[in-house]
Amino acid sequence: MNLLIVYILSLPPILFALTIHEYAHGYVAYRMGDPTAKFAGRLTLNPLKHIDLFGFLAFLIFRFGWAKPVPIQPYNFTNFKKGILYTSLAGPLSNFLFAIPFGLLLRAFPALYYNNLLLPIGMMLQLALVYNLIFCAFNLIPIPPLDGSKVLFVLLPPEYRHIELWLERYGFMVLIGLIFFDRITGIPILWGWIGPFVSIFGRIFAGSIPLL
């Protein structure tokens, strides 16, 4: 299929995955006692409220990017540690859960992928499956500013506080360095985790439908 068409078909799945991810953060934070996202107008499924223009363009060009982070004030949580833990996991978990129906639809109706007339629909389902799994795996990496780092910091014993401080200071540079290292050298450091994650769960959900 023409690359331009694939890019166009990828727009709704990317917007959906970004929106669900950020909405889940805000919704769980609200349920845990923090209304900051609600007051900021971010408890919505309107993708325009969550999109970061440069982050979205980065997704299209480099296949990685970011959304506009949902504002959260952890000190509003009724339980500080549980609030951070649940709120941080909410985004990746929402992407994982929403990958399931997209995969099952492809498994149940393979003609959506193999029939030329229905292929655009099948491609969008395939892209939605893959992007949601990528979002989940990528955000679970325990390097700031990703969600996995917040989970790590909550679970770290106090004697390892120096690890948190170091990652908070240098984590973003480490993450960007690893992304470009993967791209330039072809050595799959980050993709060594993301690729198998997408492949394993993609096969479980979608069966024999090819993944990107």
TrEMBL record:
Per its Swiss-Prot or TrEMBL entry, what cofactor is needed? Answer: Zn(2+)
Q: Give the UniProt record's GO annotations in the biological process aspect.
A: proteolysis
Q: In the record, what terms sit under GO molecular function?
A: metal ion binding; metallopeptidase activity
Q: Any stretches that span the bilayer, and where are they? A: 6-30, 51-72, 84-105, 117-143, 163-181
The membrane-topology field of this record reads: Multi-pass membrane protein
Indicate where this protein is primarily found: membrane
Q: Which InterPro entries match?
A: Metallopeptidase_M50B (IPR052348), Peptidase_M50 (IPR008915), Rip2-like (IPR044537)
Q: Where located?
A: Cell membrane
Q: Which UniProt keywords apply?
A: Cell membrane, Hydrolase, Membrane, Metal-binding, Metalloprotease, Protease, Transmembrane, Transmembrane helix, Zinc
Looking at the keywords, is Zinc present?
A: yes
Q: Does the keyword Kinase apply?
A: no
Q: Domain Peptidase M50: where?
A: 123-176
May I have one GO cellular component term?
plasma membrane
| Membership in a protein family | Belongs to the peptidase M50B family.
State what protein this is by name. Peptidase M50 domain-containing protein
Q: Which organism is it from?
A: candidate division WOR-3 bacterium 4484_100
